[in-house]
Amino acid sequence: MGKSVGMLQHATPFLLGVAATLVCLTCYRSKIIVGGHARSLEAFSLINATQVNSTHIACEKKEVASFDDHLISREEVVNQTTVQNATPVEEEPFPDLLPLLKRVATIDKTVIITSVNEAWAMPNSLLDIFLEGFRIGEGIEHLLNNLIVVTLDPNALNHCTAAHPHCYPLTVDGKNFTSEKVFMSSDYIDLVWSKVKLQRRILELGYNFLFTDVDIVWMRNPFKHITVYADLTTCSDEFLGDPDDINNSPNTGLIYVKPTQKTIEMMNYWLDARNRYPPNHEQTIFNNIKADLADNLTVKIQYIDTSYCGGFCNHGNDLNKICTMHANCCIGLQSKLHDLRKIIEDWKFYKALPIEEKRNGSFT
């Protein structure tokens, strides 16, 4: 019995040492910080770990909260404790976009988006013509409340804020989008792909969007020709008569997308496809992959009849039906300005006609 007591006395310091070691390890483990970063409306799953290096670690307090089934640990660090990130914390893509979406969106979380650089946003340039279309259009001026103009350089932002209350500055690293970008030039291609990334982010945040190029004149509401059936609705360069026909030729200068996991995957597939094809316009790449999107991702794509949403390449002639007119097949800023101003003049003339004469209104 005395021998057992003696052994226990000798073992006590060892056991206390083990216990102290476990306490220290517990304190050290409590310094591991887990953070949740929202990435999409279905998945909040990007986790960043934090590593702690310390000469003296004292663990006084640990609070644990939960967020989307991930543990978030917060602790009070004392006695010269230094926290270092194992990996750099990723900055939120498109900062300050969500508050603007909340402010501008319709009650069903829909926004209209267009984009401009300085050349397009200057007074009497494309942005002014674009905004005028809403003001003189048929019952669409209120849609300006739901329009966000994305600006691609600081001067464009200055011009935008002077003309419209909802402007969002977008910067692309290493790129200068200030001047006119010639169709299919390298800068032009980078510019049009930057809008696809923004569109994806809008979907991730849970908002429907209708993107419209700024060289489009709106005369009536194109939402009347967008159904709840489709995941994606786009205008057409060539419309074959059936809105569900995958062989229609898309014009992504006016495109509507609903926010679902499927459409977010679609945007990822679209962006990835840029690297699988020779450098090209995002619309051409979309046309290349549209069958894959429909077959592999089961994306429901619908096309709007050119009688309603047309362009200079292909459009309807009945001014009683036309909703939008796109200055495609028109190269160069000055040429677009000249032709779009003619559209505005024709529309004003049409609106001033007596009702009987309006019924015979045509566009050539």
Automatic annotation (TrEMBL):
Query: What residue stretches are annotated with the Nucleotide-diphospho-sugar transferase domain?
Result: 142-340
* Stored InterPro entries: At1g28695/At4g15970-like, Nucl-diP-sugar_transferase
**A Pfam family it matches:** Nucleotid_trans
Q: What is this protein called?
A: Nucleotide-diphospho-sugar transferase domain-containing protein
The record lists the organism as Rhynchospora tenuis
